[in-house]
Structure formats: C-alpha cells, structure tokens
User: Fold Cytosine/adenosine deaminase-related metal-dependent hydrolase from Chitinophaga dinghuensis.
Amino acid sequence: MEQAIKITNDKSYSFKNVLLETGFEFDGTEVVKTKTALFCVEIEDGKIKAITPNDPNKAAIDAKGRLMLPAFKDMHAHLDKMLFGLPWQAVSSKRKTVKDFIAYEQKMIPEWLNTSIERTEKLIHFLQGYGTHYIRSHFNIDPTSGFDSLKHLEIALKNKEKTVGAELVAFPQHGVFYTDTAPLLKEVVKMNIDFIGGVDPYSIDGSIEKTMDLITQLAVDNNKGIDIHLHERGASGVKTIEYLINAATQNPTLQGKTFVSHAFALGHLTPAETESIAARLAAARVGIVSSVPFGNTIMPIPTLRKHGVEVLIGNDNIQDHWNTFGSGNMLQKAHLIAGLYGYSSELDLSRALGFATRYTLPLDDKGNQQWPKAGNDADLVFLDASCSAEAVARMSKVVSLVHKGNIVY
Assistant:
C-alpha cells in the first residue's frame, strides 16, 4: 500500500465529525448493533485532551464521519532482515530446513546490510499505510551480522521516531551455540534493547537446557524480557515452553515479559493437554506471539485467551527468503482470526479488533465506552467503517494514522 507520509507537528489541534462507538444495542442478551455518534476530539502535546459533542462549524480537521479506532500494533516483525525494497524474489524450494536458511543468510547478510537502513524505512512506511504505529522488531545477532543489524535498525527508527514506536528483540537466528553467538548475546543484552530471543534450542543448538539457561540468566541479570522463536512441534517444543513457564514462575521479574513466538507445538496437543498448558501459561504470565498460521497447524488461540494468556499478533514475514505472503495488514490478521475461529457475531467481531490493537478497544464486553479518554496517547486511525465489527469483517480501508499526536498521513 502506498501512502504519502506527511507529518504534522502541531502540538495542539482538533478533529470534528469523528465517529466514535458509544455502546451496544441488545436484543435480549445478544448484541445486535454497535451504537455510534459524532464528536470533536482535541489533541494536545501528543495526548487526547478532550472529547466533546460534535460541532460541524468548528475550525478543525474534518474527519468526515470516519470511524476513529486505536492505532495498530505489529508485535512480531523483522524490520532488519527482509527482501522488501529489492526486486521481487519468491521463496526457494531448495531451502527446506532452518539450517539451510542459516547457511543462506550467512552468504547474503553482508549484501543485504548495504541497503538495510533505506529498506527498513520503506518497510516501516508500508506498515504505517495499514495503520500500524508500533512494532516489536527482532534483529539478527550472529557472527555474520555482528552488531550491524542493530545499528542499522536503530538509525532507521531514529529517522522515523516521530511516526512510529518500537521495542527490540536480540534474535540469534543462527543459534546461540551452533554459530558461537553466545559472546555477542552477552554484549548486546547490555545495550538499549528490550528482549533477548532464541530459536529452536533443541534442533539448532542440540540442548534445551544449555541454551535456555543462558538466555534466562541474561534476561534476569539485565532486566530484559524474553521472546523465543519456537517452531518445534513435538516433545522438544513442549519442553521448551514448559522450561519458560518454570523460569517465569521461579523469577517473578520475567512474568508479563516472557513470550514464545510461534509455539507451533501448542497446535498439536490433545484438547486436555491444551487446556492444561494454557492454564499454566496464564498462571506464569507467559505470553504467546502468533502470526496466525493455518493449514496443518491451527493455534489454539481461543483456549489460550479463555485462560487469560496474553496472545500477541504480528505479521512476521512481509517479503523475505522465509515467506512471501505477509501483507503487513494487522486488520487482516484480526479478520483471519475471526474467520478461523468463527467470531462472526457483532460482539465477537468487535472483540477480534483487540488482536490488532493489543487489546485496546473502544467498548468493554458490556458496551461501556472505555476508549478514547482524555489523557490517552493520541495513537489513532481513521477508517471507512461504521463500527469495529464492520472494520474487522470487511478489512476496512485505513485513511489516516496519528502517532503520539503527529498526523502521519
């Protein structure tokens, strides 16, 4: 999606003719409609200052009756390492295992780094075009990349700091011990990053405990979170998830900031096993980050949410050598979840929006208005939709994005 990015730095301004959700209309106990009304919304110093009754004659930016929703958050991306901005290239059938991909990256990373700053900015621009204002990005840390992937990513984010927020995960894509990355991890974890990651410790490094002991200790000692890529589907995948549950239980500082990305093993358990591990994940406050796979792996997102597990959603690949199907559209992810799990009612569709916004929703489950409120960060999107449910069902077009009060487009 192409959008003209134009930053407005005005510290104080207003919107008029803003469509906001105000409640639910019920038929008995069933939600049959979302109520809305037009308002004026005042912005000051990056915050929502006030929401007032609509005044169509007010000197303000005209939202033209478009629906205002919380801006979207992509909670799993690789801004530093992709083919976006290079000539089109589909995935090669020659690379079948993770170690095949590692060998390919070792060959190509030096070339990719030459243009990574410019292409990272283009990818951020692309994601913003779909209403994303905040990104959790992994960056390669390995003997081939050194610290260059991080340095280039930091430059790109600095160049875009007025229009996007981010949190960073040190990602040893090439294994912690398989390519002797441990010394680099011990250094990078002292830098201005938020999480330390890992990938398939059993199949790549040959040991769950050796890899996870190091990652966990580095996170605890340096007050970082953990976000592990785990593609393993069998017993080793379950054991790695259980390791993190136990680590978070034993180290309360890890609770609420420990995540398993992908966690495909959860999609291959019996219903009873799924219920059990979901309850344990919730008790330890260990979250799951998913790109919402389908095919022979359907993640048990409803069961995880039922138990209170924080499930974050991201696009993961946009265009790279791993996968070429990423759309960059977080609203599409919410739409996919609704379709996969049968969230077709007005209430369920409106709740599905939370997967795109990290659970910030205009209305609570009973229809009480909870967003926007004076004092909220001015992180907004305007869409051509009548309500959240329609936005999810129809993947409504995002026509404007505001980040911390800056009108991006």
Q: What stands out?
A: The longest helix spans residues 98-113.
